Amino acid sequence: MPIILGSLKETNKEIFRDSEQAFKEAIENGVLTENRSNDCFGCSNCSFCKGDYAGNWMYMKTIGKTDYFKNIYTRKYITTGN
Fold this sequence. Notes:
Strand content: 15-25%
Number of strands: 4
Order of helices and strands: EHEEE
Strand order of the largest sheet: 1-2-3-4
Helix content: 10-25%
Structural class: alpha+beta
Number of helices: 1
């Protein structure tokens, strides 16, 4: 049975939603940016760059109302949502 996002309650179930929508919301909420000058170079010194350029992140999953993104270089996760 498919999960309909409009009726999703905070259930802590892992789902996979439209990644374009997840990225759009992360950019609108200031978690990620379309600004390529914030590109991550995969260096070990993560404080060197801001690293929030959306092109460096992969949408992984959604649990409850929280989206999880993984950096393609550092493998670190960030979350958005509640």
